[in-house]
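Example record used in the benchmark description.
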Amino acid sequence: MTKGLDDVGFAGKRALVRVDFNVPLADGVIGDDTRIQAALPTLQHILDEGGAVICASHLGRPGGEVVEELRMAPIAERLQELLGESVAVKTCPEVVGDTASAMVAELKSGEVLVLENLRFEAGETANDPALAKTLASYADVFVQDAFGTCHRAHASTTGVPAILKPAVAGRLVEKEVAAFEKALGNPVRPLVAIVGGAKVSDKIMLLENLLEKVDTILIGGGMAYTFLAALNQGIGRSLVEEDKIATAKAVVEKAKAKGIDILLPVDHLAAKDFDPNTDVKVVSGDVPEQRMGLDIGPVTREAYSAVVRNAGTVVWNGPMGVFEMDAFSHGTSELAKAVAESSCISVVGGGDSVAAIKRNEVQDQITHISTGGGAFLELLEGKELPGITALQA
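Model output (structure tokens):
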């Protein structure tokens, strides 16, 4: 059992908190501060108890080198605004070194220190023991609150908690794990999984794991055409993974043997070209030879929405079409509204699925929106996350 914030006292202690401040940043301007806000309950708890906070996060992929555009200063400024004037938020210009050591030593209870971008250090992604040891030396307690990085065995996610004890989960990680346990551990049925995206190869493990848990799977996106090809339906010039047709057929047969319904698109927005301004037709059944399916059609949208409206629990990962083009975002958007309007327990993760929820302004009607794309997917695949397992060691 993983320990949480309530299992330790923070008065007079320094807490190294692995946060996920990997936010969209352009010219020093933060595009979306959702991940910073998600960390506030954990940081506020530690501060309220009389502890000091050292925030450690990566930003982008600098590859072990200093990239000026990926410095943490703008994030620290936003954190200061969110925490308010009563909390001193300081910015450290490095991860390790004399300045970092001095600023950590001078940190007082009730203050926050934001370390420089962890990935400026090559040892972060390499899980370098020396870097982990230095980071661990900064604090009395380790708090893992970066769910989005828990599927990575990096110095800050697994190296530090192997050294620094107690190592506990923060509020965000607790919330993410609880949502999965509620959705997949002992779900309110029927349990419906919505699975989309481009490729079957990206979702094979997910589908295999879901076949052991769900009642119905709704499949959309480019991967649907590999499934349709497996059922000998005409798919025209739609995306297909020829080497995964047999795999798709095996998934369908396994589902049938288990009494699980797999629904595939029965109509499509069929385009002449992969272009937002191309000629588009709604076609039922086979996709014409010179066209490609780029979104689910209106009949499929309604059929999928009806399943969702009657669900007890819905887990969603992946778009129903080429969501980044407005012309082919209708299926994903309509499903987002259906999930929001349903009385089901809903857990949504993955960039495009979450974007659809936000674009349709229904995020307040979703039970849980995951902050971790890769980590969300790996939990759906039934994998253990190294960053969480490390807290239990």
